[in-house]
Amino acid sequence: MTNSDANIAERASRKAQRKTTPVYLRTVWAIVWKDLAAELRSRELISSMLVFAILVIFIFNFALELDARARFNVTSGVLWVTFAFAGTLGLNRSMAMEKDRGCLDGLLLAPVDRSAIFLGKALSNLFFMLIVEAIVLPVYSLLYNINLLHPGLIAVVLLGSVGYVTVGTLLSSMAVQTRTRDVLLPILLFPIVLPLFIAAVKVSAGFLQGLDMSEIWPWLNLIIVFDLIFSAVAIMVFDYVVEE
Amino acid sequence: MEAKPRLLTILDGVTVVMLIIATGMVFFYAPVEAVMGLVQKVFYFHVAAGWVGMLSFLVAAGAGIAYLWKGNRKWDVVGMASVELGLVFAFINVVTGSIWARPIWNAWWTWDPRLTTATIMLLIYAAYLMLRSGIEDPDRRARFGAIYAILGFLSVPLTFLSARLFRGIHPVVIGSNQPGAEGQFDMTALMLQTFLFSLLTFTIIFIDLLWHRIRLGRLQDRIEQMKLELNL
Amino acid sequence: MIEVRRLTKRFGLKTVLKDLDFHVQAGEFVALLGPNGAGKTTFLRILASLSRPAMGEIRIAGFRLPQQATAIRHILGVVSHQPLLYGDLTAEENLHFYGKMYGIDLPEKRIREVLDLVGLSLRSRDLVRTFSRGMQQRLAIGRAVLHDPEVMLLDEPHTGLDQDASIMLDGVLREVAARGRTVVMTSHDLARAADLASRFDVISRGKIVASAGRAEMSAERLPVFYREAISETGGRAAASPDHSIHRVQV
Q: What are the chain B neighbours of A199 within 8 Å (beta carbons)?
C-alpha cells in the first residue's frame, strides 16, 4: 500500500469507529417518525383500517342481532374480532411500504441494530392500531349506548394490542417476503395470538360486566405473560427474518 | 446411492410387530369397559396419536432452534419431517376423538380445552406448511419455518391454559365425563398396560417414520445436487 | 480497502459464488462485468452486508464481515436495482430520514448539497411516488452518497437513467473517485464502464476470471477482453454483454 492509500484506509477506519454507536432510541424514533409522516401524507393505512372496522361492527350488528341483552354479552368479542381483522390490514400495509421500493434493504444498510428496526416498526404499528381503537371504542359506545371508556377496558386494549402488534410485526415481515404475501398473514397470525385473544375477550367482558378483580386477574396475567414471552422472542428472532 | 441403513430395516420390523401386538392387546388383552363398551377401545390409539402430535411439535421447535443456531440444512429437514408427521398424527387424534365422542358425549365435537388445543395445533401445522410453500429461496424457507415452529410451540401451551381457564369460569360447557379423567380413574391394570404399550408403539412408529422422512429429504437433496452438477 | 478471500455463497444447494478472491486498493474504481446469472448482484449484496456468505473471509477497511457489519455499514454507500426510497415521503424527507439513520451532523445543509448534486433541488418537496424512474434513481444516488461513504457499491446504476441523468451520475462518480473513494460498480454497459473505471474485473460462473487495469485497456479493447474472458471459462459464452444481442448456449 502506498502512503496515500494508507491514509485513506486510516481515515475510513476512523470514520467507522467514530460513529459505531448511534443513539439507539433515536433510530427507533426516526423509523416511527418516518412512518407517521408517510401516513399523515397518504392516510391510507388508518383510513382503510377504520372503514373496515366500522364495516365489521355493522356486519356483526345484523349477523348477531345485537339487541340490548346480547350486546352486553358479546360486545367484548365483537370488539376484539374487529381489532384483529382491522389489525391485519394495517400490518400488511405497513410492511408492504417497506417492500415496495426495496426500503427494507435501505433500513438494513444503515449502521443500526436490527432490533431497533423491529422496535421502530412495531411501535408505529402499535400507534396506528391504538388510533383506530381510540376511534372505534367511542363510536361503538355511541352506536349501542354502552359506556366502553372504562379505565380497565382501556388498559386491556393497550396490553392486548402490544402483544398482537409484536407478533404481527414479526409475522408480517415474514409474510411480505413470500409469494402469497398479504393472504398469508392472518393464517400465520391468528393461531399464534389465539390465547391472547381469548384472554383479552375475557378480561374486557369481565370489566364490562363488573366482575370481581379476582376473576379477571388470571386472564390479565395470561396477557402479560404472552406480551413478555413474545416480545422477547420476536426481538431475538427478527435478525433471522431480515438477514440472508 | 446411499444404502438403507441396517438399523432402519430392523426398526421397520420392530415397528410392524409392535403395532400388531398393540392392536391385539387393544382388542383381546384389555377388558371391555363397563359403561362405554367397545367404543372405549379408541382411547388407546387416540391418546397415543395425540401424544405423538405433541412430541413432533417439540421436535420441530427443537430443530428450529438448532437450525437458527447452527444454520445446518439437516435441521431444516428434521423440522419439516416432524411437522408433516405431526399433522398426520394430530389429525388421527382429532378423528378418533370424534368417533369416541359421538356415542359418549352425544356430539362429534365439544369445545373442550384438549380438543380446542389439538385443533389449533393442526392449524399451526397447516400454516407452517403454507408459509413454506410460498417461499422459493431454500435458506429463507428454512429460517422462516424454524421461526414459525418456535412461535407455535410457545403459543400452544398458552392456548391450552386459556381454554382451561375458559372452562373453569363456565363449568356448564360439558359435564364431568372428561375423556382423560374418566380413562385414568377407571383404568384396570390390563388397560393401563395396553395404554402404555400403545404409547410406546406410537412413539416407535414416529421415530421410524421420522427417520424415513429425513432420509427421503436427504435423498431429495442428493437428486437436486446431481441435477445441478449435470447442468454445469 | 476491500479484501475477499475464498468466498463461497450457496442458495440452498446451488453454489452461486465459488472460492472467489477479490482485492481492491483504496481509491480504485472497479467495474465488475459479467453475464446475467454470473453472481454479480449476489456478490455485491454480500459486500453490502445484506447477505451472508457460506464460507470465506471478507474485510472492508480492515473490518470483518459479518462480525463487524455495523462499522462497515457506516462507510458504505449502496445503489441497488431498487431505489430504496419511500413513495409517500418527499425527496427531502427521504434524505432526512436516512440522515438520521446514519447519524449525520448538520443534516439540513448536507441534504441541500446532495439535492443540488443530483439535480433535484427544484423538486425537493415533491413526493417520491410522483417521480419518474430516472428521478427516483437520481435520488437513490443522492441517498447513497449522503453520508459521504468511503466505499461505494453500485449495481447497474445506469439502468433506467436517461441521457442527462447518466451524465449526472458519471459526474458524481468521477467526483467521488477523485476524492479517493473506492468504487465497485457492476455493469452491462461496457462503454460506460470503460469511461469510468480504473480496473475491469470479469465475473463468470461465480468466479473472477479476468482482471485488467486502466493502462492495458481502451474502449475498443474492452469488449474483446470481456468476450475472451467469458468464453475461456467455458459454459455460457455471451456474444456481448449487451441485452440487445442474444446469448449463445455452448
A: 162, 165
Instruction: Determine contact: C224 vs chain B, CB below 8 A.
Output: no
**Which pTM does this prediction carry?**
0.89
- String of DSSP letters for C131-194: S-HHHHHHHHHHHHHTT--SEEEEESTTTT--HHHHHHHHHHHHHHHHTT-EEEEEES-HHHHH
Mark whether C38 and C94 lie in a shared domain: no
C185 touches chain A (CB under 8 A): no
Supply the ipTM of this predicted assembly. Answer: 0.89
Which of C8, C9, C11, C13 is the best mutation test for B, with the most CBs of B within 10 A? C13
| C124 and C21 in a common domain | no
Shared domain check, C153 and C60: yes
Domain presence at residue C114: yes
Residue C69: how many CA atoms within 13 Å on its side-chain side? Answer: 19
Residue-level pLDDT at C234: 55
Chain B CB contacts of A184 under 8 Å are 130-131, 134
Nearest chain B Cα to A229, which residue? B154
Is C12 close to B138, i.e. CB distance below 8 A?
yes
* Closest CA of chain B from C92, distance in Å: 34
Q: Is residue C165 part of a domain?
A: no
In a domain, C249, yes or no: yes
What are the structural domain ranges in chain A?
Answer: 24-242
User: Mean pLDDT in each 10-residue stretch from start to end of chain C (250 residues)?
Assistant: 90 86 91 86 92 90 88 92 92 93 84 91 92 90 92 89 86 89 89 87 87 80 83 53 36
pLDDT tens column, B67-115: 999 988 899 999 999 999 999 999 999 888 888 887 777 777 777 777 8
**Residue A15 and residue A10: Cα distance in Å, rounded?**
9
The total of structural domains in chain C comes to 2
Q: How far apart are CA A32 and CA A35, in angstroms?
A: 5
Same domain, C114 and C219: no
Q: Which domain holds residue C105?
A: 82-148
Q: How far is B115 from chain A (nearest CA, A)?
A: 14
- Do residues C52 and C23 both lie within one domain? yes
pLDDT at C250: 30
